[in-house]
Model the fold of this input.
Amino acid sequence: PDFRSSRMRQPAEAFAIAEGEDSPATDLIPEATWRSIVSLPDDVSLRTSDHHGTLLRDLWDLWSNWSCLVGGLQQATSGLGRDSPIAHVACDATDYLQAAIYSALVGHYRLARTSLRGVVENLTIGLHLELAQDYDTFADWLDGTELGFGWAADHAHQHARVAEMDAALQSTIGDDVFRQRRPSDEGGLARRLFRDLSKYAHGAPDFNDADIWNSNGPIYVPNALEGWSQAWLAVYALGVLLCRLAQPGLDALSWEAQFTTRSLFAHVASRVDPNSPARRLFDAVPASVWAA
Done:
């Protein structure tokens, strides 16, 4: 009777583009191999969705609203006559956010955090390139030139809009988004998030799969899921903020979304742990960021 107990192939009408009929199986996976691959992730997905259904629903709804944010960015930058760096990277972030949710559902918590790292890095690169209107470097990056988070974060702080926001945050809470790391200072929120998520990306000690599961896996670890969900919310809220900084005209979202850019940011920020430095910073973002 459990709706999760069966699998189905989607019909052609479920896809925007579908040509012809599916061909019959030509090299079917052996049953034993199939079960070996999916048995543990299936087990974790059932346990996770038994106890965290509301969380999964809320994050999935936010993922859907991110698509509306991307649509708003595409409309706001449509007059460029070329691809917009921030619209491009925000569209890519849709996939990262989606992959993070699925990875967490099936117990691959390290990969779920690693996906979030891509959101922080690419949006920071897009922010700088958008503000600098550096379309040549953007084209080079799309062709494979390595830029990286650190390069983009250093440049982003040079732009007046970002510098003014960070100065206002420093004056009120002594924290900001992009300040450089020093021996006695962990740096701004974006740098801290990126560094923490990088530990999962690189499988550092205490941040690899075996340490998270304390076992082989994947297995269901409630604390790992809760910690990941807070990171997901913080990265999402930061992403909305960076998109707004890159395109200050971005207000209404696409496809009759229930949120504006500002209300989406406030809604997500309110879900972040009220005792965390990230929440403290989000609550202190100056109103001037959202001014028309």
